[in-house]
Specification:
Blueprint (H helix, E strand, L loop, with lengths): L4 E2 L1 H8 L6 H10 L5 E3 H10 L2 H12 L4 E3 L6 H10 L7 H13 L3 E3 L3 H6 L1 E2 L3 E2 L1 E2 L11
Parallel strand pairs: 1-4, 2-3, 4-7
Antiparallel strand pairs: 5-6
Helix pairs in contact: 1-2, 1-3, 3-6, 5-6
Length: 143
């Protein structure tokens, strides 16, 4: 089943009401009927940008089944290290490397992100690009 990946920027936009992309994230989510998935490092990174009520709302949404969160087993850290080395010129962070790992594990290529420049470079096994879901107007954040 198609289950798009979710990156930090989408979640921040969803839970920060003052974010320029908040309405776009909320509108997209209200129209979406597909289950969503991410990795635990994305949740950690997202929480860094949220206030306490935002963190609570995000965690409650996940608990209620709004988002599936994959944990990365320690024995997969060498794969993440390989992605970080491969994309060092992009200054790939741990959360993005974890999303590349999840895409390779699941075969899912669709992603909700604001980091379009990075995810246009990253590749999934077989040299497949990510499919960037167009959920916001590009001029809102200068992308």
């Amino acid at each position: 089943m198609h289950q798009p990946l979710v990156d930090t920027g989408f979640l921040v936009a969803l839970y920060v009401r003052g974010d320029a992309l908040h309405h776009a994230a909320l509108t997209w989510l209200q129209q979406n009927r597909l289950p969503l998935q991410t990795v635990a490092p994305v949740i950690v990174e997202t929480c860094f940008f949220l206030d306490a009520p935002g963190k609570i709302a995000l965690l409650n949404w996940i608990t209620q089944g709004g988002l599936t969160v994959a944990e990365i087993p320690v024995n997969s850290y060498s794969e993440l290290a390989a992605y970080i080395q491969k994309y060092a010129d992009q200054d790939i962070d741990f959360a993005d490397a974890a999303l590349v790992w999840l895409a390779n594990k699941t075969g899912e290529r669709s992603i909700l992100t604001v980091d379009e420049n990075d995810f246009q470079v990253y590749r999934i096994k077989g040299s497949h690009p990510f499919d960037l879901i167009q959920w916001y107007k590009h001029n809102l954040r200068g992308n």
